Amino acid sequence: MSSIRFDQKTVVITGAGGGLGRAYAIEFARRGARVVVNDLGGSGSGDGQSSAAADAVVEEIKALGGEAVANYDSVEEGEKIIQTAMDNFGRVDVVINNAGILRDSSFAKMSDQDWDLIQRVHLKGAYSVTKAAWPIMRKQNFGRIIFTASAAGIYGNFGQANYSAAKLGLYGLTQTLAIEGAKNNIRANCIAPIAGSRLTETIMSPAVVEALKPEAVAALVVSLCAQECEENGSLFETGAGWTAKIRWERSQGVVLEGEDAVDADKVADSLARIGDFEGADHPASIEDTFKPVMSRIGMDQAKP
Ligand code: NAD
Description:
Blueprint: E1 10-13, H1 19-30, E2 34-38, H2 52-63, E3 67-71, H3 78-89, E4 94-97, H4 112-140, E5 143-148, H5 151-155, H6 161-181, E6 186-193, H7 206-211, H8 214-224, E7 235-239, E8 242-246, H9 264-274, H10 286-296
Parallel strand pairs: 1-2, 1-4, 2-3, 4-5, 5-6, 6-7
Antiparallel strand pairs: 7-8
Helix pairs in contact: 1-8, 3-4, 4-6
The structure holds nicotinamide-adenine-dinucleotide.
């Protein structure tokens, strides 16, 4: 028997009609969860809609003996998705923000529409679903939330300015919700997955798409949503059974005194030393950022 179980728990998964979301839905259901399979059912670039994708995954879960219900709303209307969970199962314990599309083009050629749609689906969509679930999780003193970033957001990628901005934005959201939810046992984590799906089949060979199983990403996602999991505010890269954690690294920095502190030429002369990571540290909070700055003005103990 699996040790991580979700019996009596309701898991809402956006974009669960295919790819990664489908793998999550099946794995949560296999471990006893009641699953809301949300999917708008449009194309990879966000055109059109259909109930077929979500329905197919619900049928698959039922055939395996699990419990699931479909929802076809866009993540932009998060309250409707959460309402489906409440109407059918009476609670929401886990939210997996996974729905996504691509509108790739170089920044020079990117239209306002392509910029806006990507922000709306990825960033506003994850906000909207999570915002609707938040008071429910706070009230029951339990919640597990996953946001889906991307290596394109962490490192940048040619042709994905809109997508990169939204994806790293989701990590910012993760970190703040991890802080705000902690006292109510709500934990938020973020993943940057690599898997074969219709979004990656255009840039990967069929053999690579076939080998990069979404199920390997599902294993991390499910583990982060376990009741016992204490992980909070973290960012993971994961694919094909490899999982690594990302953290910020900060150089020791350079202090310029007196007139030099406001002299751009002196800063320019110091850039190489500023970027020297010998003796770097790993700040983990906003307080860690203020420390060196406040100590410069002789207010080490003071709050900004
Ligand atoms: P996918 O296209 O198979 O799955 C995305 C699903 O989201 C689709 O079924 C789609 O219909 C649904 N969707 C799109 N817009 C929606 C909306 N407005 N409301 C509800 N559902 C909507 O692609 P995937 O690779 O499984 O992607 C899942 C997530 O992982 C996405 O957020 C994607 O950006 C992210 N991601 C994937 C990879 C990868 O290697 N596959 C890498 C980095 C990030």
